[in-house]
Write a structure and sequence with these properties.
Helices cover 28% and strands 27% of the residues. It has 2 domains: 154 residues, Quinone Oxidoreductase, Chain A, domain 1; 123 residues, NAD(P)-binding Rossmann-like Domain (Rossmann fold), CATH 3.40.50. It is an alpha/beta fold.
Length: 321
């Protein structure tokens, strides 16, 4: 089968297409024949070495497809089931074996392409708005990179929960996307002082929470944009890791700072199923719509990484085996 390996740490040029044998599922595992593979920023962290791992490695944490074979002891699925998973390395391939207790069934009303595009990003949005900081009606929140994969879901979901959403984006085209998803206010971060604009919008009160997947470039702005007892959830490093901070710096407004990871919020199979159920329910309601902004053949994973890191993508990106 075709698979894409990172042969060493580095830029997109370290991604190479290889021919690997189709794996055999062991006890508690299923073999999934992929129909679509999700591209996520965490893939670039694995490739670059920001999140170290042994090389060479088949990248990718998210895919959807059809169960082709079962390992011993698997009762959660049967052959032919439509499933999706995240959190198991090896998705950049035509097939993969995954633990059965880390995959979820895909409802008939959700396409496998949508499932591959949304599971990791959607579950990330789910825990951010429902559990990391519970968004309440009437709150004003700030979402950075609001036209991106997670950002666009955050905007829609927060609006469905009754929040006023301030969104930051990098271009007029992305501003239009954010407004289309329901953002109440859109700030072009390259042209405006974000913290000053947030203060103007909120009458100097600041926001209840900032969802920041950008990292280094937005960290100080995010802190300045918070109101009293506000929460900064810095959940990504698109521009590089956020800088170190002394706890005393949070004291001026009794701020909360967290660096949450999805996998700590879906650590058990029960949490995984509940998160997926909430995600699929909000999709079914129509409150959140998933847009696949671009697709690449699996063999062109390098070009997909270049586009993602160059901020030339909108919405979700898929690799098609």
């Amino acid at each position: 089968m075709l698979a894409i390996q990172a042969v060493r740490t580095g830029g997109p040029e370290v991604l190479e297409a290889v021919d690997l044998p189709v794996p055999t599922p062991g006890p508690g595992q299923v073999l999934v024949r992929h129909q679509a593979v999700g591209l996520n920023f965490i893939d670039t962290y694995h490739r670059s070495g920001l999140y170290p791992m042994k090389m060479p490695v088949v990248l990718g944490l998210e895919a959807a497809g059809v169960v082709e074979a079962l390992g011993d002891g698997v009762t959660r699925f049967k052959a032919g089931d439509r499933i999706a998973y995240n959190g198991t390395l090896g998705a950049y391939a035509q097939a993969a074996v995954v633990p059965a207790d880390r995959a979820v069934k895909v409802p008939d009303e959700v396409s496998l392409e949508t499932a591959a595009a949304v599971l990791l990003k959607g579950m990330t949005a789910e825990f951010l708005v429902r559990r990391c900081h519970k968004v309440e009606p009437g709150q004003t929140i700030l979402v950075h990179a609001a036209a991106g994969g997670v950002g666009s879901i955050l905007v829609q979901w927060a609006k469905a929960l009754g929040a006023t959403v301030i969104a930051t984006v990098g271009s007029e085209a992305k501003a239009a996307l954010a407004r289309g998803h329901g953002a109440d206010h859109v700030i072009l971060y390259g042209e405006e002082d974000v913290a000053a604009k947030v203060a103007e919008i909120t009458g100097g009160q600041g926001v209840a929470v900032v969802y920041d997947g950008v990292g280094k470039d937005t960290f100080e702005t995010s802190l300045k944009s918070l109101g009293r007892r506000g929460v900064l959830a810095t959940f990504g490093n698109a521009s590089g890791p956020a800088p170190a901070i002394a706890p005393l710096e949070l004291g001026a407004k009794s701020l909360f700072l967290t660096r949450p990871r999805l996998f700590d919020y879906i650590a058990t199979t029960t949490e995984l199923d509940e998160s997926a159920a909430a995600l699929f329910a909000v999709l079914a309601s129509g409150a959140v719509k998933i847009e696949v902004g671009q697709t690449f053949p699996l063999a062109q994973a390098r070009a997909a990484h270049e586009a993602l890191e160059g901020r030339r993508t909108t919405g979700a990106t898929l690799l098609i085996p």
